[in-house]
Amino acid sequence: MRTDVIRKSVAALRVEPNLKAGDMAGASFSWAGIRDELGVSPGSPMNIGQLAVDRHAHGDAGTRTAFRFLPVEGAPRDVSYAELARLSNRFANALRSLGVGRGERVFVLAGRIPELYVAVLGALKNGSVVSPLFSAFGPDPIATRIRIGECRVMVTTAGIFARKLAALRESLPSLQHVLVVPEPDGTPVPAGTLDLAELMAAASDEFTVVPTGPEDPALLHFTSGTTGTPKGALHVHEAALTHFATGRHALDLHADDIFWCTADPGWVTGMSYGILAPLLHGVTSIVDEADFDAERWYRILEAQRVSVWYTAPTAIRMLMKAGPELRRRFDFPQLRFVASVGEPLNPEAVWWGEEVLGLPIHDNWWQTETGGIMIANLAAFDIKPGSMGLPLPGVDALIVRHADDGQVEIVQQPDTVGELALRGRWPSLFRAYLGQDERYRKCFAGDLYLTGDLARRDADGHFWFVGRSDDVIKSSGHLIGPFEIESVLLEHPAVAEAGVIGKPDPTVGEVVKAFVSLKPGFEPDDALRRQLLGHARKRLGAAVAPKEIAFLPTLPRTRSGKIMRRLLKARELGLPEGDTSTLEAGA
Ligand code: ATP
Ligand code: MG
Known about the structure:
Layout: H1 31-37, H2 48-52, H3 59-63, E1 65-70, E2 77-80, H4 81-97, E3 105-109, H5 114-125, E4 129-133, H6 139-149, E5 151-157, H7 158-165, E6 177-181, E7 194-195, H8 196-202, E8 217-222, E9 232-236, H9 240-249, E10 258-261, H10 268-280, E11 284-288, H11 294-303, E12 308-311, H12 313-322, H13 324-328, E13 337-340, H14 347-357, E14 361-365, E15 375-376, E16 390-391, E17 396-402, E18 408-411, E19 418-423, E20 432-433, H15 437-441, E21 444-445, E22 448-457, E23 463-468, E24 473-475, E25 478-480, H16 482-490, E26 495-505, E27 509-518, H17 526-540, E28 548-551, H18 565-573
Parallel strand pairs: 1-11, 3-4, 3-5, 5-6, 6-7, 10-11, 10-12, 12-13, 13-14, 27-28
Antiparallel strand pairs: 1-2, 8-9, 9-20, 14-15, 15-16, 17-18, 17-19, 19-22, 21-22, 22-23, 24-25, 26-27
Adenosine-5'-triphosphate (ATP) binds at residues 223-228, 230, 341-345, 363-365, 367-368, 388, 451, 453, 465, 468, 562.
C-alpha cells in the first residue's frame, strides 16, 4: 500500500549502512577527518589520480577489478587496480613525452571505452586538467568547448576525429596534440594525429605522480545546458574528499560492492561517480559501452550481480515505459541500493522502484558546480517519495529569499519556497566559471552559494525540489513549480513523460501548459486530454492544474536526459531556441 513515507528498518538491510541516524548530527564528521582517512596529511600534496588508483594498486587490493567494460558485443574486459595504475602511468608518461605538463588542459572525447578512463586518470596523475566532452556532440559544441577550455591535448578515436574534428583543427590554435585510439583493423591514424596505442607502447609504466596541491585545478566540467549556454565549471584536486565522503554516505559504497553508474563521463555524474568515487573506495565498477536498452540493462543487473546502482530519472521513466513484464524475466537479488540524480524524481518513480524493482529509488540532488552529492535519500533513512532527502554530513543547506533591497535572507519557516543555498566552502565546490568571472561571483552572497534552484525544507529537515528558478510559473499571484504538476500527470497510467511551462497570459500572468508523451497503447485524443485535465484538477486544484495539454511523441531533452522546458516554452511562443548544443538528436 502506498503511504507518505517508505519506512526503513536498519535491521532489514542486507549490509550495515555506512550512515545511521545518530551520525547525522554532524559532530563526528569533518573534512580533515576524511583527508586523514585518505592518507593525506595537512599541507602535503594531493592528487585525485593517485588517491583513486595508486592507493589500491599493490598487494591483494591490486588484483581486484577496478572496471569491467562491457562492449556493445563480445566478452567483457576486466581491468584490475594494478593494471589501471600501470596503464595510467603509461598515459602520464606519454603526455610528458609530448611536453604536456601541470595545469595544461587535456580533453577526452570518446565513448565509454577503456582508453578514455585510462587517459582521465593518467592526465590527473600528470597534474593536467581533464575536461570530458560527451562523444555524441557535433563539431560546433566541441569547438566552442575547446576554445573556452583552451584545450591543448585531445584524446579521441580515429572515427570521431575524422567526422567531427579534422575539418575544425585549423581554427583551434590551442589544440597542439590529438591522440587517437586507432581503428581495430590496423588502418593508420589520420594525418595530423598521433597513434595513442603506439605512444602507450613506447611509454614506461612507472611514473612519479606530480605533487599537485589540494587547490590545483583538476577537472573542467561543462554544465548540461538545460537553462542556457553551458558553463565551464572548474574543480580542484581536493574535490576527491567530497567524492570519497559522498560515495560512502550517499551511495553507501562498501568494499565488496559491484557498482554501476549509468552516466556517461562526458557529464559530471559520470566523472565524479562513474570514475572517481568508486575508485576512491576500491570497488568494482561496471561500464556499459552501449546505449540505453531496457532489456540489456536488466540483463546487466542480473549477469554482473550489480549491488549498488546509480542512474537517472530519464532512464527510470524509460524502464517504467517498457512495462513490468520485462523486469519479471530477470532476477537480480544482489541489488541492494538504487539511487538517482539529474532531475527531480517523481514519487511515481520511487514507488515503481519499490513495487517493480523490489527496492525504492533514492533520489539525490547536486549540480556540476557542487562537484558531488549534497542532498540525498540515504540507505538507512525513511524515504518521503518526491523529496530529495537530507543534507549530507559536511553540507549546510538552507532556503533563502531575495529581499527587495537585494539582500539575501535566510528563511527559517519550514515549508516556505525559496532559493536553495549552501553555506561554506566544501572541497568539491567549483572554483570558477571559465571566462565568466562576473557570473561566478553572482553565484555567491557572503558565505552562501546560491544554486539557482527553488526548493522548500519541511519540518523534519527534508528538502523538496520545486523547480529551477527559470522554470517556475507565476500565475494569479501563486508560484507554481513544474515538478509538482508533472508528478501528478505521471500518476496517470497513460503518461510516460510530462513537461510543464508557464505561458504568458494578460489576466493571470502565466497559465500552466503541460506537454505530455504517452506510453505504448494510448492514443493522443481529446477524450484522453479531458481525462488528464480532470485528473490534474482533482489532484492539484483549479488554480495550479494545467489549462492546456499538448501531446508530443517525445519531449525535448538534453543529451544527459533532462527535459528542456525552456525549449518547450520557446517553441510554444515562437521565440528563438537559444543554445541547443546539448539537445538530444531528433528532439
Ligand atoms: P545548465 O546549468 O547549463 O542549465 P544543468 O543545471 O542541467 O545545466 P547540471 O549541473 O548537470 O546542469 O544539473 C544540475 C541541475 O539539475 C540542478 O541544479 C537541478 O536543477 C537539476 N537536478 C539535479 N538533480 C536533481 C534532483 N535530484 N532533483 C531535482 N533537480 C535535480
Ligand atoms: Mg545548472
